[in-house]
Fold this sequence. Notes:
Residues 143-174 are annotated as: Disordered. InterPro entries: FxsA. The mean pLDDT is 80. The two termini are 32 Å apart. It contains 5 helices and 2 strands. It has helices at 2-31, 33-67, 73-90, 94-104, 106-123, and strands spanning 134-148, 154-164. A hairpin with a 5-residue loop joins strand 1 and strand 2. The chain is 64% helix and 15% strand. By secondary structure, it is α+β, with helices and mostly antiparallel strands. The chain folds into 2 domains: 2-123, no CATH class; 134-164, no CATH class.
Amino acid sequence: MSDAVGRRIRTVAGLLVLAELVVFVLVAQWIGVGWTILATLATSVLGWILLARQGTRALADLRERARTRRSPGTELGNAGLVAAGGLLMVLPGFIGDVVGLLCLLPGTRSLVRGALTRLVVARLPVGLRPPVRVESVRTAEVPRAGDLRPDGSGSSRLVIEGEVVRGPDGRPPA
């Protein structure tokens, strides 16, 4: 199986390099070779600047979580996305720059994290996927049959009526 995964990764990497080359040639034809090289250098410098700024912020958030002994959760994901985004911005190529910028900017980072989460969860075996989510239609307090007290009062339990919007396999129910 690892050979198939390695082959798939090499194929995707080769296609990405080819796409970057095609975009580079198209941009060079549009604005000229000199301006294209200058734009590539400028986006690399911008990548370094954004990586320094956002990376420092992400590491400060992680340190704060560690200091207060709270789970790193989202902050750890942000640090990973900042690192990946910075690497993509520093490497030459316009497609990588766009994806890297999406990973580096705080406003779009949550979109990238959500897309990656959906991609990973969809590839997990059903037993390892997170719980099914439901949307509540209405709630009602229903008394428990054995919990009634002599005075007629009793404890109640919360019953939530709803419908399953996504099953354990990630798809809507049939």
